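Submission checklist for the structure archive. All mandatory fields must be present; incomplete records are returned to the submitter.

[x] Identifier: Lysine exporter protein (LYSE/YGGA)
[x] Organism: Gordonia bronchialis
[x] Residue count: 201
[x] Sequence attached
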Amino acid sequence: MPALAGLLTGAGLIIAIGPQNIFLLQQGVRRSHTAAVVAVCAVSDVVLIVAGVAGLGALVAAHPGVVTFAKLAGGAYIVVLGLMAAKRCLRSDAAIIANADEAATMSRWAAVATALALTWLNPHVYLDTVLTMGAIATSHGNGKWAFAIGACAASVLWFTSLGHGAGRLSKVFSSPRAWKILDGGVAVVMVGMGAALLLSA
C-alpha cells in the first residue's frame, strides 16, 4: 500500500505542467536528445525524492523562513515562465519556425544543461519533491521507503512516457498554431500556479 500511495502521489505532483515537462515535451516532439533529457529529469527527481524521504524535507520544514522563501522564489519563478510563454504566443509564424529549427540543432550538452537548470534552479521543485513528498512518506512510518520506491517509479514512468510519446505528436506540432495554443495553455496554468504559491506564502 505505501508503494501504491507513493506511485499515485508522485504521479499527481509530477504530471502538473511545469518548465521541466514543457522542455521535455518540446525535445520529444522535435526528437532532439530525448533520451538524455529523460535521463536527467528522471534521475534528478529520484535524487530529490530520496533526499526528502531521508529527512531533508523534515529539516527544511523545521525552518519556516526557508519554506516561505522557497514559496516566494518558486512562485515568482513560475509566474515569469508563464509570462514568457504568453509572450511566445504573440510571435509570428516565421519566428516560431525559426525557433524550432534552432532548437532542433541544440547540442546534447546544451540540452542536458538546460534540463538541469530547469530542474535544480526551480525553487518549486523543492517544495513538491523534497518537502511535500518527504512529509507524506514519513506519515507511512516503516513503509516510507516503499512509498519512495513508488514515487520514484512514477517519475521514471512519466518522464519516459512523455519524452518518447511526444514524438508521436510531431505532425501536430509542425504547425505554428499548435505551438501558440500550447504556449497559451502553459501561460494560463503557470501564472495561476505561481500566483497561488505567492499567496500561500
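[x] Structure attached
Curator remark: The chain has one domain: 2-199. The chain has a mean pLDDT of 80.
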